[in-house]
């Protein structure tokens, strides 16, 4: 019996551990036979050991990176990720959605909190290299640089390249969820300043299919003039531009005035973007300023007016070269 006990207590090869060391079980060196899937979990081997500890369900999803799990009961959760600041494809943050005021068309609640809009047209590499007219794309931001909307032109290839800047178009304005919240429709109209009929016009719908306003051109021999109308075709505001819209190395301002043209309530500015960009691309940057308490529908109509002004005066290649001083 003593000999048998001595053999059992004798150290085995590979198990000479120092005092106080508790090896892992099973030992790492033990791989098991081919096809061995390891030892059963603690819950299966010791059913009473994990009493009171819930087991993750089968559909339990792993938390996203940066989200730490909750600690013991009574301790606060720390380092929670912030999800209220969505980021656009290019890393540009989107403006957090404000509460929607009453009688506000869905998607226009962003406009209720701002008095300035920045519109940046994206550079299309194919268009720069080949001169092939592509659909225009714009980022619409607030004064903090946060993206509010993304505007995409929807025009067929033949119309774009045959009609140029005079083309009729549909502009779709999308929010951060990719939903179309505003639709702009520009019909084909006359572009001659000598013809007082069939002048330029753009229609604004928010949401799509529901008209909220119109922008129509007023004939004038010298000045570019536009009228902003509500959904009932009633005149609300006037837009008056400078006699020369080809200012070099300076912004070009279109003033938004009252109907009597006595009071200036805002402006639409074509911003100077530099000699190279002005001369060799047709991308433009605009800024819109209006009263903070202006009806959100009229703010959406201002967006339509800005796009109409862009196509009327700044989209053509000849206008670009003239503003840059090429000829």
From TrEMBL:
Location in the cell: Membrane
One example of the protein's molecular function in GO is: phospholipid scramblase activity
* One GO cellular component term noted in the UniProt record for this chain: plasma membrane
Signal peptide (from-to):
none
Region Disordered: start and end of each range?
Answer: 1-22
Q: How does it sit in the membrane?
A: Single-pass type II membrane protein
Which Pfam family would be a valid example here?
Scramblase
Q: Which InterPro entries match?
A: Scramblase (IPR005552), Tubby-like_C (IPR025659)
Q: Which UniProt keywords apply?
A: Calcium, Lipoprotein, Membrane, Palmitate, Phosphoprotein, Transmembrane, Transmembrane helix
What are the required cofactors? Ca(2+)
Q: Does the keyword Membrane apply?
A: yes
Cited PANTHER family: PHOSPHOLIPID SCRAMBLASE 1 (PTHR23248:SF38), PHOSPHOLIPID SCRAMBLASE-RELATED (PTHR23248)
Q: What does this protein do?
A: May mediate accelerated ATP-independent bidirectional transbilayer migration of phospholipids upon binding calcium ions that results in a loss of phospholipid asymmetry in the plasma membrane.
Concerning its family, UniProt says: Belongs to the phospholipid scramblase family.
Q: What is this protein called?
A: Phospholipid scramblase
């Amino acid at each position: 019996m003593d000999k048998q006990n001595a053999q059992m207590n004798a150290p085995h090869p590979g198990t000479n551990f120092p005092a106080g060391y508790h090896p892992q079980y099973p030992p790492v060196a033990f791989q098991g036979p081919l096809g061995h899937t390891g030892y059963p979990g603690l819950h299966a081997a010791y059913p009473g050991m994990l009493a009171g500890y819930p087991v993750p369900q089968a559909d339990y999803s792993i938390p996203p990176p940066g989200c730490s799990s909750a600690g013991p009961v009574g301790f606060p959760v720390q380092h929670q990720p912030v999800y209220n600041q969505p980021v656009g494809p290019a890393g540009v943050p989107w403006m957090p959605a404000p509460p929607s005021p009453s009688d506000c068309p869905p998607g226009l609640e962003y406009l209720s909190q701002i008095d300035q809009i920045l519109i940046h047209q994206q550079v299309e590499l194919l268009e720069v290299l080949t001169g092939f007219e592509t659909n225009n794309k714009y980022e619409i931001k607030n004064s903090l640089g946060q993206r509010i909307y993304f505007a995409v032109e929807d025009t067929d290839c033949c119309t774009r390249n045959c009609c140029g800047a005079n083309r009729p178009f549909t502009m779709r304005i999308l929010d951060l969820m990719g939903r179309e919240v505003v639709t702009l429709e520009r019909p084909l109209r006359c572009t001659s300043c000598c013809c007082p009929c069939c002048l330029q016009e753009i229609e604004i719908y928010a949401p799509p299919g529901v008209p909220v306003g119109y922008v129509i051109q007023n004939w004038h021999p010298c000045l570019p003039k536009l009228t902003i109308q509500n959904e009932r075709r009633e005149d609300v505001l006037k837009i008056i531009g400078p006699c020369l819209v080809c200012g070099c190395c300076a912004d070009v301002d279109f003033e938004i005035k009252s109907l009597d043209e006595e009071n200036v309530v805002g402006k639409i500015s074509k911003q100077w973007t530099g000699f190279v960009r002005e001369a060799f691309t047709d991308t433009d940057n605009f800024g819109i300023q209006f009263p903070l308490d202006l009806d959100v529908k009229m703010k959406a109509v201002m967006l339509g007016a800005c796009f109409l002004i862009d196509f009327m005066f700044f989209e053509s290649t000849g206008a670009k070269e003239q503003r840059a001083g090429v000829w």
